[in-house]
Amino acid sequence: MNAEILAVGTELLLGNILNTNARYLSERLPEAGINVYYQSVCGDNPQRLKETLSLALSRSDMVITTGGLGPTYDDLTKETVAEALGLRLVLHEPSLRLIEQYMASLGREMTPIQRKQAMQPEGATVFRNDWGTAPACAVEARGKVVILLPGPPREMEPLFEHCVLPWLAKFSEGVLLSHTVHIFGVGEAEVEERLSHLLRDSVNPTVAPYAKQGEVQLRVSAKAGTREAAEALIAPAIEAVRAELGDHVYGIDVGSLQAAVVALLRERGLKLATAESCTAGLLSKRITEIPGASEVFECGVTSYANRIKHELLGVSEQTLREFGAVSEPVACQMAEGVRRLAGADIGVGITGLAGPGGGSTEKPVGLVYVALSTAGGTEAKRLMLARVNPDRENIRYLASSNALDMVRRALMKQN
C-alpha cells in the first residue's frame, strides 16, 4: 500500500511547532511494508481540510492524519473524515468511560464538550489511548484506509507503536528496513567519491547520503519479506562502508555524536569534565541532553574571563600573557585543570574565536583549539572552522562536535 501523512493544525503552518509526527511516521511506516509517497499539512479550517483530505484519498491507498481530535470547536478531523467517507459519528462507550476515568484521576469533572472525543466514525477500529484523552481509530471504507491519530507526539508515538503498528500487519507485503550510518571527519563530497560504486550501483539495498551539520549520514535501506531477510541484505553494505571509511564511522543508528560518546563512557565506566570558552557550555549541553549522562558527566565550566581560567582551572598567568587565551597551551591547561578539579578520567578544554568580530590575521575568526587530557597525557587539535560557513553558531557547534569526536576516538583506543 502507499500512504499519505496529513498533519492537521494551524500551529504547524505558522511554524509555531515542528512537524515531528510526519518524520516519525515516515520512518516507522516502511517497517510495516507501507510506502509513504506524500506528506501534507493543513490548518484547522474545515473547507481546506476537506479539500486536502479529498486530494489525499484520490492518490493514496491509506491516509494517516495527526491532530484535530481534541474537544474544542476547531478539532474537526474526525468530522471531516466521516463526511468524506459517508459515515456517521457514533458514541463509543468504552472511550467515553476511559475519558471519564482520566478526568476523575485529575480531580476534574468531565464536561459535555469532552464527550465529543468519544464520538467515532461508524464501523471504525478504535485504539485505546492510555497516554491522553483522545482515542485513535482506523476506518476502512470505499477501498481506502484512514487512520486518525492525536497530535501531541507524547500520545501519537506510543499509540502508533503499541496499537496501530500491529493492526497494520494485515496490509504488509514485506518489510522496508533502514539503518543510518553516522560519519564524522570527512565531508559529503569525499564520502560520495570514496563510496561512488556503492551509492551508484546498489539497488536493494539502496545507500543514500544525507549531509548534516558538520557530519554525514548514510541511509541504508532494503526491502524483503521479513525483517531478518532485510537485515541480511543491509549488513554487507554497512560493512563495505566501514571498510572504506574506518573510524570515521562513529555508529549505526546511534542518534548523535553525543549519544555515542555517552554510551562509550558508560560502557567503560569513565567520567568526563569540560572547560569551555568560545562554546559557552554547548558541549556540556549536548552531553547532558542524553539520558544517563549524569552517570558519566562530572561538571562543566564556562570560563570566558582569563581570571576564571587562572583562578578556577589553574591556567598559568604566564601562559595567558605569552600565548593569549586562544592558544593550544591554554586549551591544554584548561583540559588538565577541569579534569583535576572534577576528579574526572577525561578533561576537555575548548578556546577560540567564534566571531563575528574580534579576529586578526594571526588569529582569525573560526580559529579554535580543542584539548583532551587523560592520565596518559594531553593532546590538542587546531581547527579552522570559518572556511565554509563563518556563522558564529556554526563555529561553536563544529567546535563542540570536534571535541566529542576527540573523546570518542580516545575511548575507542581503550579496551
Description:
InterPro entries: CinA, CinA-like_C, CinA_C, CinA_KH, Competence-induced_CinA, MoaB/Mog-like_dom_sf, MoaB/Mog_dom. Belongs to the CinA family. This is Putative competence-damage inducible protein. It holds the Pfam family CinA. The chain is of the alpha/beta class. It has 3 domains: 170 residues, MoaB/Mog-like domain (Molybdenum Cofactor Biosythetic Enzyme, Chain A, 3-Layer(aba) Sandwich), CATH 3.40.980.10; 78 residues, Alpha-Beta Plaits, CATH 3.30.70.2860; 156 residues, CinA-like (Maf protein), CATH 3.90.950.20. It contains 15 helices and 17 strands. The strands form 4 sheets. Strands 2-1-3-8-7-6 form a 6-stranded mixed sheet, with helices on both faces. It has a 5-stranded mixed sheet with strand order 14-13-15-16-17. β10 and β11 form a beta hairpin. α2 packs parallel to α6, α3 packs across α4 and α10 packs parallel to α15. The two termini are 48 Å apart.
Question: Could you give the topology of this structure?
Answer:
Blueprint: E1 2-8, H1 10-13, H2 20-28, E2 35-42, H3 46-59, E3 62-66, H4 77-85, E4 89-91, H5 93-105, E5 119-121, E6 125-127, E7 136-141, E8 144-149, H6 153-168, E9 175-183, H7 188-194, H8 196-201, E10 206-212, E11 215-224, H9 227-245, E12 249-252, H10 257-268, E13 272-276, H11 282-288, E14 297-302, H12 306-311, H13 317-323, H14 328-342, E15 346-352, E16 367-374, E17 377-384, H15 392-412
Parallel strand pairs: 1-2, 1-3, 3-8, 13-14, 13-15
Antiparallel strand pairs: 4-5, 6-7, 7-8, 9-11, 9-12, 10-11, 15-16, 16-17
Helix pairs in contact: 2-6, 3-4, 10-15
